[in-house]
Amino acid sequence: MRTEHARPIRLSDYRPPDWLVDTVHLDVALHPSRTRIKARLALRPNPAARGPAPLVLDGDELTPLSVTIDGAALPETAYAAGPDGLEIPQPPAGPFVLEVETEIDPSANTKLMGLYRSSGNYCTQCEAEGFRRITYFLDRPDVMAVYTTRIEADRDEAPVLLGNGNLVERGDVPGTGRHFAVWHDPFPKPCYLFALVGGRLDVCRTTYTTMSGRSVELAVYVEPGKADRAGYALAALERSMRWDEQAFGREYDLDVFNIVAVADFNMGAMENKGLNIFNDKYVLASPETATDADFAHIEAVIAHEYFHNWTGNRITCRDWFQLCLKEGLTVFRDQEFSSDMRSRPVKRIADVRVLRGHQFVEDAGPLAHPVRPETYREINNFYTATVYEKGAEVVRMLKTLLGPETFRAGMDLYFARHDGRAATIEEFVACFAEAGDTDFSQFMLWYGQAGTPELAVTRRHDAQGGTLVLDIAQVVPPTPGQPVKSPMQIPLVLGLVGPDGRDVPLVRRGHGPVERGVLVLTRPAERFVFDGITVPVVPSLNRGFSAPVKIKADLGSDDLRFLATHDSDPFNRWQAVQTLASEILIGNVAVIRAGGGVRHDGGLVHALASVLDDERLEPAFVAQVLSIPSEGDIARDIGRDVDPEAIFNARHALRRAIGNDLAPTLRVLYDRLRDDGPYSPDAASAGRRALRNVCLDLLAAPGHAGAVALAAAQYAEADNMTDRMAALGTLSLHDTAEREAALADFAERFRDDPLVIDKWFALQAMIPDPGTLARVERLIDHPAFSLGNPNRVRALLGSFAQANHTQFNRADGKGYDFVAGMVLTLDGRNPQVAARLMTAFRSWRALEPGRRDKARATLERVAANPSLSRDLADIVERSLGER
Ligand code: BES
Ligand code: ZN
């Protein structure tokens, strides 16, 4: 029953389960190294299956102790049980009760899947396939059961005992020093949503009244002494609950909602029914220890996991191929929530930056896969930017195509029709097709076809005749396993901006006014003719980033500057500046590689100045405009033969030029935006700090001592982590004594706070200096570093590999060797985290030949290792595969 080298799982092989589980009774006796689990499962044959079948239950690193059927011990000849599974070849023909006792060692669980310990507390993580590490089970999401869990533990070791659902009983076990709690969850759920927690925890609570007047006890549990940092998370939970009632009509359904923050967690957070478990980084926050970005992330992650209660838990996935059904949809929902809580345009820009920075990159390399994959070897490797971020874009496109009212009607239909069940993407999309009386068969390609569509747009204006002709062609590039693509259905929101900056009405020949500005592309090439266009116009394409595509349009820099100042669509105002900057940067990268000196372009600075001068704009938006494309953005736009060093130099030169040319304006703004009141994490205050800190960074870019000193002063005087960290970030880019002094001060100041020390690790790992590799190697030995904690690994090694383009991609290949070595060490302990780190190599084929050869050699060395985990082997082999 070894699964390590199991053949790939295919969507087309899906069969309903042979057995169903109606109820699960678990009796868990917590012990640091010998935890015992008695499981009582009420099983019955699935009427939808093919007839009598053996019972095959999944297991992973389990020790079986006993097996009974309907109360009678099963003879050893009647079953086979081992670490990886339990098989009963001839189970009873009808319903029966199976009781199995297993033993596990939570202290030895370094994979952090199943039941494990974090800071001495017990906690669980079951998604995707961790429940089989607790007891034998049909570990697949289409097996939904009602759970009752009795948890028992030493009262001293674990005074707090939490489970899914509502608490039904608690008490002492007389004479043993132990106590117990019984939790019952009335909602049928797949086992990946099971959770329990036991430990010493402090709590921050409140009561919430739902829209129908029911009272719900909300609680956030944290490590002792940290409850004063849980208030923001708790308030974010209340806002999320209210928003889901108002925006989607969805009410919470249990009497309690508990959140537990733990220090050791593979992911960000997990939506277990009624008992969310969080990485403490997405719960704990105070002005002194968390940045504005941290507060925003906490709000978004709390919302995301809460929203899963309806999109994921009440309605779950039939199989793991449908992962985007819950994740893409729930990301869409959390994005909408944050847009309503904060600034919609700024949130959209931030989300598109993430999409392009992660998903477009994934789509362009060997790990590209469809939003709904058709095959996998290790499901953990498919919690990707494509499933999440592109999955959210696909939902957003449905809304754009249908309009908000019909979209909401489709969601209502989905909730009504599939509540309590495990669904598929087809069933989800069918609800919108029905609500909108629309055919979405071509739209389904968004789920099946990988790769980022590329649009080419050309225009012809006949001012006399008053017509504008737009020719739009689309191509979807080949991706692994998908050499040839079909054209997609693409909602492209268009505006035509007239000379006064106002939109000219869109009237399409033969169709009339264009509803909500949405053009729907369906063919490889098509022509759109607009009448009544008697003045010169500049097309504003893909407004609000209505579709996740790349666009090449015949817009000159005059047009882009015009859009940057006049477009009524804030996203495209921002985009115009990005495109201008990107064109300059790409030109200069070529110049640098040819040995020349960079060109300076006053047009961009002009556009930036006009945005800086526009007092109607919100500061957070201006901050986004001033943030020029990242090294990753430039590499992606260049696409092949990438030289990270040349990209860094071109970008550095542009930042210096902006800092020099705009110095007076930046300085005035920096002083004006100073906030002397008490810190508040609200979006408006955060936006002012963001802009002020971008100003500081650009002022310092040319490296003048005065500006570096300004950063040092801000570092020293800051009364909040946002300003302190921003100043430290700016200092980190300048190889000066101030930098080392500030880094030393920071380490000393926050030495007892692991989450803050993570920022210190991450910042140093991202320093774009040749000395950074040695610095990171030294930090591995720092007492605060540990390979056992995923946050530490991501902070130090993840930041180096994913965010330090010049130093990870050192020309001598030493960055690759270092990361690969750490990945191999990590793989024996925590394969999921190791595999994730290895995805840093996913763009290796786009590098210039020298680095490409070195990266390939490193990948091949890792691949040659005989004892790789399935997680890591999957990533390495796909990375080396076709394309
Ligand atoms: N269901 C996931 C958690 C998860 C991820 C479990 C991967 C198993 C494997 C959860 O809802 C989630 O998506 N969490 C995200 C954060 C979220 C805001 C996108 C995470 O953990 O990164
Ligand atoms: Zn999720």
**Distance between the ends:** 33 Å
Classification by helices and strands: alpha+beta
Summed over residues and divided by their number, the pLDDT gives a mean of 98
The radius of gyration computed from the alpha-carbon positions, rounded to a whole number of angstroms, is: 28 Å
Could you give a short account of the major beta sheet?
8 strands, mixed
The assembly state of the depicted protein chains is single chain
The bound ligands are: ligand BES, zinc ion
Tally of DSSP β-strands: 33
Q: Which residue ranges are poorly predicted, with pLDDT under 50 across at least 5 consecutive positions? A: none
| Overall spatial form | globular
What topology, given as strand order, has the largest sheet?
6-5-9-3-2-12-15-14
- Strand residue percentage: 15-25%
- Helix percentage range: 40-55%
Number of helical segments?
27
What does this structure look like?
The protein has 27 helices and 33 strands. A hairpin with a 2-residue loop joins strand 7 and strand 8. With 883 residues, the chain is an alpha+beta fold. The protein has an 8-stranded mixed β-sheet with strand order 6-5-9-3-2-12-15-14, with no helix packed on it. Strands 17-18-19-21-20 form a 5-stranded mixed β-sheet, with helices on one face. A 4-stranded mixed β-sheet has the order 31-26-25-33, with no helix packed on it. The two termini are 33 Å apart. The protein binds ligand BES and zinc ion (ZN). Residues 304, 308, 327, 330 line the site of zinc ion.
